[in-house]
Design brief:
- Chain A: Pfam families: BPD_transp_1 (PF00528), BPD_transp_1_N (PF19300).
- Chain A: Belongs to the binding-protein-dependent transport system permease family.
- The complex is a heterodimer.
- Chain A is built from 17 helices and no strands.
- Chain A is an all-alpha fold.
- Chain A has a domain of 247 residues: Orthogonal Bundle (MetI-like fold), CATH 1.10.3720.
- Chain A is globular.
- The two termini of chain A are 20 Å apart.
- In chain B, the strands form four sheets. In chain B, strands 1, 8, 9, 10, 11, 12, 13, 14, 15, 16 and 17 form an eleven-stranded mixed sheet that branches. A four-stranded antiparallel sheet of chain B has the order 4-5-7-6, with helices on one face. Chain B has a two-stranded antiparallel sheet with strand order 2-3.
- Chain B is globular and about 75 Å long.
- Classes of the chains: A mainly alpha, B alpha+beta.
- Chains A and B meet through helix 4, helix 5, helix 7, helix 9 and helix 12 of A and helix 1, strand 10, helix 7 and helix 13 of B.
């Protein structure tokens, strides 16, 4: 509307000022790199400034003075802080996040095992959140301010506010222990390792089982995945339902809806055919951020369901004051957040090119 | 769009239905011949038996064996790879006779040379608990089944050889001409134990699987488990549910409430055992207000250990002295609580309402049991007009503060657990109460010449006159706890286990914390 009434010269100037997608992408990447670098430096410095001695964690709580001294030397803890930071950053540049003091394995390989398991869990939860939350939001919007709407809003509020560990324990007790419908914990039935050994490509078990046609493990993994995925999905489902409802109700007040009503379209048809597409944009944007948040939020769920993901790894790292592991996890989480934000930015640019200017 | 939603809903419903119909495939724990251990932490952090000193002991004890094993119930050292042993009159020469029917998992036959090589390698690497072999000056192998240890100073080497850390005998030639340390890192074992490594997946829920070693010298019967699995199960409630569903055979720790439930659950066996791990409140005898023995005695008398144990609802057992039951020298060396006398002692020391006493205390962050003690102590001290400044800290930070070169930076009360690496009470005294210029674990900063003299003479006494050593240990405990008022032993951790009633023969041996000797079990 604005473009149509503006002076042609002003329009051309505006278009010239609008940067190309490549430049926008570069600028966003530069921002992301600054954020990640900041996180790396901050994490490192905080870890080093905490009271205590990393050598104790490395050498063991009952280490002899000689063992402690050897650990200090091996970890370079006697070096000046800037030199330690340089060693850490140059290690990062080589893809070396150091060695976990707890598992004694390279942090990269630890994360290489844990992150895919978390992505599998959180990814499944996000699919469930969309499959359940979106229709609920549509239904609530369709019957806005009626009993159905109230029920959906109350339900989604409960999903958002219920403590995740409580929900995990409750569904585990009810659906596993009492009713026996699902396994109590674990990723898949390990007895299948001997009868149907899995060839691992990505460490995402369900995906590996799918691409190798290992149906027993695929079925077992899905069976084990249901409860933790449902629990992790609770929060995003509630958010998606509420956001979808709000966006659809807002969209229903637009001029085009009045016209569609006048043309005789049924309310549900208007919602699904004309309102959902424009309304879903902010919901999708939010999903990327919820994904990153849910990844962090799944720590307790992973512990309760013995899911060998990054949450379990982080809990162990924190408990054992495993500084390299904590720094590695922090970096990965930061990367996930930055990537999610970047994806959101690019999606918004794709949907609405005007956002390039910002 | 409508069709898409229908399709998606269909996929979701089908997936849920399919997976729900799939039913739980029963884990092979009690159903088959696999023993499944639900452990609350990661299992293996170190594969090399020479330097292993952590959680993996629960697996190592089934892979490796030592010359002897300590029986805590009988307070006796039992034969294992050694059938018998003798010692010289001065306790400095120990001769072990080996079994002659033992082979390593590598196929090599166990002989005296293999024992000598493995212990010498462990000493040389000097990692983990290798210090236990410090007294050994040389090892001789007069014949294939005889190993002779010459010691620089007398110690009870049969006890040393029974250690759960650093005492394993392994095949040092397992890697051939290659690097043995690198070979171990590939999750390989070179022990003589009943089981050998099958699979290890770091970070996985079922982290470790062991399989039977067919040529094990102890033999096999149909009633024994042929495989062992370790499932990492951080949450107690999850472990308990897995046990109820027979998905695991053994759970190493429970909350007191769940343990109570387990004792009345059909098909579940339970076991409660006092550990060798006690919680100690070490008092700063060198600086600050507690350098005054009247203050230390007052704090001892304001500490009601019975109330603490009662509040822990079965998770703790009484500690009457520094040495736990099951070790030589145990006996009553406790101080009875008495608030009236405590207040008088504080008044005598010059503390009253006008001049209140303030004490600093450090304890382990995240340890709820220690937190409970601190709360109860804080209340008792407040009633006596003493203000307690308690700080929960990570161990490394707490220890660093305790070791501070500046006495003014140190705490007045240091709360910590202690346990011996092998079944010898000397560990408490040599580490915690022997005087030292720079503090290390002696965080009561005690300097008592008579204590030092006893600590110096007790290893020899234990080696050559155990009965006399037991009396000396009791005297030493009384000297430190009662006369010096350097410490209050608060309680012993109590192991509360639950396991499938499908097997018998489980014995919780506190000398080997959390270890299940799976070969000793018999399925019903």
């Amino acid at each position: 509307m604005t473009t149509a009434t503006a002076h042609p010269v002003a329009v051309r100037r505006t278009r010239r000022r609008s940067p190309g997608l490549g430049r926008v992408l570069l600028r966003r990447l530069a921002h992301a790199a600054v954020v990640v670098a900041g996180v790396v430096c901050l994490t490192f410095v905080i870890a080093r400034q905490l009271p205590g001695d990393e050598a104790v964690t490395a050498a063991g709580a009952r280490a002899t003075p000689e063992q402690l001294a050897a650990a200090r030397e091996r970890l370079g803890l006697d070096d000046p802080l800037p030199l330690q930071l340089w060693h850490y950053v140059s290690g990062l540049a080589r893809g070396d996040l150091g060695t976990s003091l707890h598992t004694r394995q390279p942090v990269v390989s630890d994360l290489g095992r844990a992150l895919p398991a978390s992505l599998e869990l959180v990814g499944s939860a996000m699919v469930l959140a969309v499959l359940i939350g979106l229709p609920l939001g549509v239904i609530a919007a369709r019957f806005a301010r009626r009993r159905t709407d109230l029920a959906v809003r109350t339900g989604s509020m409960l999903l958002v506010s219920v403590p995740v560990f409580w929900l995990a324990l409750a569904v585990q007790l009810l659906l596993s222990t009492k009713l026996g419908w699902f396994p109590v914990a674990g990723e898949y039935d390990r007895v299948l390792d001997s009868t149907s050994p899995l060839t691992v490509y990505t460490n995402i078990t369900a995906f590996d089982a799918l691409i190798t046609g290992n149906w027993p493990i695929l079925l077992s993994t899905l069976h084990h995945l249901v409860l933790p995925a449902l629990v992790v999905a609770a929060y995003p489902t509630g958010v998606v339902a509420q956001m979808t409802r709000a966006a659809l109700i807002e969209e229903s007040q637009q001029d085009h809806v009045r016209m569609e009503r006048a043309l005789g379209f049924r309310p549900l048809e208007i919602l699904l055919r004309f309102s959902l597409r424009p309304a879903i944009s902010p919901v999708l944007t939010l999903l990327a951020l919820i994904f990153a948040y849910t990844l962090v939020n799944s720590v307790l769920v992973e512990a309760i369901f013995n899911w060998p993901g990054i949450g379990t790894y982080t809990a162990d790292a924190i408990r054992s004051v495993d500084t390299p592991a904590i720094a590695g996890v922090t970096l990965v989480i930061a990367l996930v957040y930055v990537t999610a934000n970047l994806a959101v930015d690019l999606t918004q640019i794709a949907i609405d090119p005007r956002t390039r200017k910002s | 769009m409508k069709r898409m939603w229908t399709l998606l809903a269909g996929v979701l419903a089908t997936t849920l239905a399919l997976t729900a119909c799939a039913g739980t495939t029963r884990a092979p724990s009690s159903a088959g011949s696999t023993f499944t251990y639900a452990f609350h932490l990661n299992v293996v952090t170190e594969w090399d038996p020479a330097v292993s000193y952590s959680n993996e002991s629960i697996a190592m004890a089934n892979l490796y064996e030592s010359l002897t094993r300590y029986d805590a119930a009988a307070k006796k050292v039992e034969p294992l790879l050694a059938t018998s042993w003798t010692k010289s009159a001065d306790g400095r020469r120990w001769t072990f006779t080996l079994r002659d029917d033992v082979t390593f998992h590598t196929g090599r036959k166990l002989d005296s040379t293999a024992v000598k090589e493995s212990i010498e390698r462990t000493k040389k690497l000097a990692g983990g608990a290798a210090y236990i072999w410090d007294p050994v000056s040389s090892i001789e192998t007069p014949d294939p089944t005889t190993v002779v240890f010459d010691l620089a100073y007398p110690v009870a080497l049969d006890l040393v050889a029974s250690s759960g850390y650093g005492a394993y005998v392994y095949d040092t030639q397992a890697a051939g001409t290659g690097d043995l340390a690198a070979w171990f890192k590939k999750a390989k074992d070179a022990g003589t134990g009943p089981y050998t490594v099958d699979t290890w997946t770091a970070g996985a829920e079922t982290e470790l699987r062991l399989k039977a070693y067919d040529d094990y010298w102890g033999g096999w019967t149909d009633q024994q488990y042929r495989a062992v699995e370790f499932r990492v199960t951080p949450e107690v409630t999850t472990a308990w549910q897995l046990l109820q569903r027979d998905d695991v055979s053994f759970v190493d720790r429970l909350t007191p409430q769940i343990f109570e439930q387990a004792t009345t659950t059909k098909g579940v066996g339970t076991s409660e055992t006092s550990s060798f791990q006690n919680l100690l409140a070490l008092y700063n005898t060198a600086s600050g207000p507690m350098a005054d023995i009247r203050v230390r005695r007052a704090i001892q008398m304001l500490t009601d250990t019975k109330a603490i144990i009662s509040a822990l609802h079965g998770a703790a057992a009484p500690a009457d002295g520094l040495i736990p039951p099951g070790l030589i020298g145990e006996g009553d060396a406790s101080v009875k609580p008495d608030a009236t006398v405590a207040k008088k002692l504080l008044a005598d020391a010059g503390y009253d309402a006008g001049h209140p006493l303030r004490l600093s205390l450090t304890y382990a962050q995240g340890d709820k049991d220690q937190g409970l003690y601190v709360t109860l102590l804080g209340s008792a001290l407040k009633a006596a007009g003493v203000q307690l400044d308690a700080r929960p800290m990570q161990w490394d930070a707490q220890w660093t503060r305790g070791k501070s070169a500046d006495p003014s930076q140190r705490q007045d009360i240091f709360v910590m657990y202690w346990y011996p690496d092998y079944a010898d009470p000397l560990s408490w005294f040599a580490n915690l109460f022997k005087s030292a210029k720079d503090p290390y674990f002696n965080l009561a900063y005690l300097e008592d010449a008579s204590v030092d003299a006893s600590v110096a003479s007790l290893p020899k006494e234990t080696a050559i006159a155990p009965a006399q050593a037991a009396r000396s240990y009791l005297d030493l405990q009384r000297r430190i706890v009662v006369d010096d008022a350097a410490v209050t032993p608060l309680y012993l951790i109590k192991y509360q286990r639950a396991y499938s009633a499908d097997f018998t023969g489980y014995v919780d041996n506190p000398a080997y914390p959390n270890v299940v000797f799976v070969h000793d079990l018999r399925t019903k």
